[in-house]
Write a structure and sequence with these properties.
Number of helices: 12
Oligomer: single chain
Distance between the termini: 55 Å
Low-confidence stretches: none
CATH architecture of one domain: Orthogonal Bundle
Main location: membrane
Number of strands: 0
Subcellular location: Cell membrane
InterPro entries: Bact_Polyamine_Transport, MetI-like, MetI-like_sf
Family: Belongs to the binding-protein-dependent transport system permease family. CysTW subfamily.
Radius of gyration: 24 Å
Keywords: Cell membrane, Membrane, Transmembrane, Transmembrane helix, Transport
């Protein structure tokens, strides 16, 4: 009988520490008792009751809306910043620009949130915009924060690309924008998808930045849960968290599945091209 090594035991303990609370949360979302710590049997009443909880469902929809737009904007800005850092080796202020791009990664969110709050207040006094803080200011704050993660992910991918492929396309007459859309973007598509998914998750999970830059009527799901937990965990919160876990798990699985299929098709196409080249030669 094979004995478990210390490494395997620590791996299992680490995975259990991470995922066991999630499993418990899902189980207690089916608890019939209103008291979270008392098991009252199996029931789906908290899932059906979510439709009647307008405040909680409104917070969910606002968080999903902000996270969706954040993923789009952060991916676009982060990709542009990554191209500047990797494709323009020297320009005045490059070190400063690189530091500004990666600063949100190491700066405490409290400092970032306070700085953005002061910025929005000063802009409102000087130019009258934003007139009030809400979903727009939350979106701007989340985009600023998540763009740094996208820039780091896309930069790592761009540094691994073979530039001879793009150069060959331009030698054959392709314009730079066509090379970018038809060659560069497909090659960095996995990193773009990873950056968008990370931005979506970070925006959906953020509490600190949203607490600083939000206003009346712009309560996100983390803010709603945080305010409700101080009064005690409600079963509806377990149900919402379980649905989010299910959605994220399904989306991650589908992204992995289609990415793997695309990679397999690419490898088969390369092998077919090599075989045709060898037979032709």
């Amino acid at each position: 009988m094979k004995r478990w090594s210390f490494t395997n035991l620590m791996l299992v303990a680490g995975l259990a520490f991470i995922y066991l609370p999630m499993v418990i949360l899902v189980i207690y979302s089916f608890n019939a008792s209103r008291l979270v710590t008392v098991w009252g049997g199996w029931s789906v009443q908290w899932y059906t009751g979510l439709l009647d909880n307008a405040q909680l469902m409104g917070a969910v929809m606002r968080s999903l809306e902000v996270a969706f737009y954040t993923a789009i904007a952060a991916t676009a800005l982060g990709t542009l910043a990554a191209f500047v850092l990797t494709r323009i080796p020297r320009f005045r202020g490059r070190t400063l620009f690189g530091g500004l791009v990666t600063a949100p990664l190491v700066m405490p969110e409290v400092i970032t949130g306070l700085s953005l709050l002061l910025l929005f207040v000063a802009m409102a006094q000087l130019i009258g915009w934003p007139a009030q803080r809400g979903l727009l200011t939350i979106w701007i704050a989340h985009t600023t924060f998540c763009s740094a993660y996208v820039a780091v992910i896309v930069s790592a991918r761009l540094r691994e690309l073979d530039l001879s492929i793009e150069e060959a396309a331009m030698d054959l007459g392709a314009r730079p924008w066509k090379v970018f859309l038809l060659i560069t973007i497909p090659m960095i598509a996995p990193s773009l998808a990873a950056g968008a998914m990370m931005s979506f998750a970070l925006s959906l999970d953020d509490l600190v930045l949203a607490s600083f830059v939000s206003g009346p009527g712009a309560t996100t799901l983390p803010m709603e849960i945080f305010s409700a937990v101080r009064m005690g965990v409600k079963p509806e919160i377990n149900a919402v968290a379980s649905l989010i876990l299910l959605s994220v798990s399904l989306f991650t699985f589908l992204a992995w599945y289609f990415t793997r299929r695309a990679e397999e098709r690419r490898k088969r196409a390369m092998q077919q091209a090599m075989l045709e080249t060898a037979s032709g030669g």
